[in-house]
Specification:
34% of the residues lie in helices and 22% in strands. It has 9 helices and 13 strands. It is globular and about 55 Å long.
Length: 263
């Protein structure tokens, strides 16, 4: 492939309050123009990311946290590391309140060359159905508290920053509408078929199917998600991997795909 193009995209950085701002990426690697057409879509499924539910907003554990940060309960993310007592009254509490899973998984996928250059795109599917999109140049806060503040803003107003070009935004109201006619390759340790991450990524690139993996702490996928899966596979011998380990495996496979396409 002879025609090469260097991409320069707006990047989001975090200031001291965890807000996103823009800068310019001057070190983006080259990618062939004709390779910009196809993308590998990676989706964190049923992510344990939500605002404090109203039914526990008055719990002492929640109230103390809100006072500490100078926020109202509904402006904070539910976090099992802090609100574990309050959460026990919630339905399916064991699947909820784990922003750290989303944070670590996104850090393994975003800010990588395959995403920056347009070969891959990353989304987060929430347990309420919404799908959150990320600009290819977004830079998430590395600090966990700042990440939580940023994502709480996204869940409240539907985007970040609140004005100007969005760097994180709500892309769809539900997973079915988001996928449209595309297939969904679902990564699950319970799948009977095993494939290498590199083969999964290659298939997604060639067929347009999305790749999805769970971003919740415990339990099976919901029936709604399972009904949308066109293929279920496991990786690494079906070992019960953490979500961020799966994200890392996919990120490495995306780098390999990018090298093959350029070769």
């Amino acid at each position: 492939m002879e025609t090469q193009k260097t991409l320069s995209s707006p990047l989001a950085t975090s200031d001291d309050r965890g807000r996103v701002s823009e800068s310019t990426d001057e070190e983006a690697l080259p990618i062939a123009e004709d390779e910009l057409m196809a993308k590998v879509t990676v989706v964190l499924l049923e992510a344990a990311l939500e605002l404090i539910p109203e039914q526990i907003a008055g719990h002492p554990q929640v109230v103390r946290t809100a006072r500490r940060y100078g926020l109202r309960p509904g402006e904070m993310l539910l976090d099992a590391g802090i609100h574990w007592k309050a959460m026990r009254s919630l339905e399916a509490w064991w699947r909820r309140g784990r922003p750290d899973i989303v944070h670590l998984s996104l850090l393994n996928l975003l800010e990588k060359a395959p995403v920056r250059e347009g070969l891959a795109e990353v989304f987060v599917h929430l347990q309420d159905g919404r799908v959150i999109a990320f600009s290819p140049g977004v830079r998430l806060p590395k600090n966990y508290d700042r990440f939580k503040g940023l994502m709480a803003q996204v869940l409240r107003v539907g985007r970040a920053p609140p004005e100007g070009e969005p760097l994180i935004w709500t892309a769809a109201k539900d997973l079915r509408g988001f996928l449209g006619n595309r297939g969904l390759i679902l990564l699950s340790e319970d799948a009977e078929v095993e494939e290498r991450p590199a083969d999964i990524v290659r298939e997604a690139y060639e067929t347009g199917s999305a790749i999805g993996f769970g971003a919740f702490p415990r339990g099976p996928f919901s029936k709604d998600v399972l009904s949308l899966a066109t293929k279920m596979v496991r990786i690494r011998g079906g070992e019960p991997l953490k979500a961020w380990d799966v994200a890392c495996a996919l990120s490495c496979a995306l780098y390999d795909l990018a090298e093959r396409l350029k070769g």
